[in-house]
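Input record (one chain):
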Amino acid sequence: MVNDKPALQGLVPVVGVNKMRIVATIATKENQNFLAEKVKEMSKGALEVWTRDIRKQRENNTTFSPFPPGRSKREKFNFGLDEAVSFKLRIFKQKLEKEKKIALEWNDVIDELLKRAGK
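The corresponding structure, as predicted from the sequence alone:
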């Protein structure tokens, strides 16, 4: 099933063989790390729906990308901010959303902040 995919095989004792069977149908050596994260994050039901959608895309020869258009793999950052800096960052986000007239993810806000800082 996932014997040649160590990132997934190591999760079998943690999440169980039934949950692992769901992703085994779409698992490759290239996507095993990504799928391991999904198995940890998603419920069994959500995982079933998600993998079903991926299989449909493959059948229709549609390229599957787990990332939003124009984006690459996400990396998590964990850091604390002073209250004053946090407040300023949230105000910047609100102003940017009002300017663009859409809700923004923090990724978009920080990207815009870096663009403006680079000028």
